[in-house]
Amino acid sequence: MHYLNTLTAKPLSAPPNVRCDQDTIPVLIRWFGSWQISLRRRALSADELTRRYDLAASRWCRMLDQLGSSDAYETMLRSALSKDVPRADGAQLRVLDCGVGTGAMSCALARVSPGPFKLDAIDISPRMLEQAGSRLRECGIPATLRHGDVRELPYDDGAFDLVMSAHVLEHLSDPGVALNEMVRVLKPGGLLIACLTRRSPLGMYVHIKWRTHRVTPGQAESWLLESGLENARCLSLDHAAVCQQLSVACIGRKPLGHVHEEFAP
């Protein structure tokens, strides 16, 4: 495994459909006539996220299995890739797992992929990367793992056929920065699949614990579209009822001939 030092994030721009104020995340916004009532929370810093995920790493696989997440990812990816096939220039797909965690989504991809793929993965938590390395080896997936920040990906432009992200973007006060980076490293014609915390009672529990954004399916599609992707659509996570209530999955394709430009609201 190859590790990089955690990267210093560039100044964060506001994400699509979200107005950022001092690295905060909206909890509640209501209008009463000409009055707006807004409740916001400070997002966890990169160091805080690293510490929390390092502490949780040893039990993370067990928790995902209890929730049915691994099977839900498999069902979702099988459905997604049966309709939207990544365009690979080489003999193997090049895949990037952003915020790999313990490798659950990459292992699910291996179970549904019609052929082998070359996997790169990045995470802010060294302990999660250790867990991912063990699990990916068990699944027979060769991988290059890097320690770094998804807001400044250490990969070339247009390097990957498929970029995946499971419950990473919502941790950021400005998810648009990370989306810009994911689109940048995606090849024209390539696919991006993102799982996000759903706006629901279970999503509120996640927000209380992790200070995350919570999105509706329409908001998830809007985030991908405003990042420059096309044909954004939501995917079903209906294998497990808990996952369906907890998560929104969305897929989009980078247009052929796309010239990357960072977006702003």
Mean pLDDT, to the nearest integer, reads: 87
Count of individual beta strands:
9
Rg over C-alpha atoms, rounded to the nearest angstrom: 17 Å
Total domains: 1
Shape-level CATH architecture: 3-Layer(aba) Sandwich
CATH class: Alpha Beta
Oligomerization category of the chains in this entry: single chain
Q: What's the main sheet like?
A: 7 strands, mixed
The largest sheet has its strands arranged as: 5-4-3-6-7-9-8
| Low-pLDDT sequence parts | 1-21
Describe the 3D structure.
- This protein has 265 residues and is α/β, with parallel strands linked by helices.
- It has one domain: Vaccinia Virus protein VP39 (Rossmann fold).
- The chain is 36% helix and 25% strand.
- It contains 8 helices and 9 strands.
- It has a 7-stranded mixed sheet with strand order 5-4-3-6-7-9-8, with helices on both faces.
- It is globular, with a radius of gyration of 17 Å.
- The N terminus is likely disordered.
Short description:
This protein is α/β, with parallel strands linked by helices.
For this entry, give a set of tags.
single chain, 265 residues, alpha/beta, Rossmann fold, two-stranded antiparallel sheet, 8 helices, 36% helix, globular, disordered N terminus
Topology:
Elements: E1 24-32, E2 35-42, H1 46-67, H2 69-83, E3 93-98, H3 104-112, E4 117-123, H4 126-138, E5 143-147, E6 160-166, H5 175-185, E7 186-197, H6 201-210, H7 217-226, E8 230-235, H8 241-246, E9 247-253
Parallel strand pairs: 3-4, 3-6, 4-5, 6-7
Antiparallel strand pairs: 1-2, 7-9, 8-9
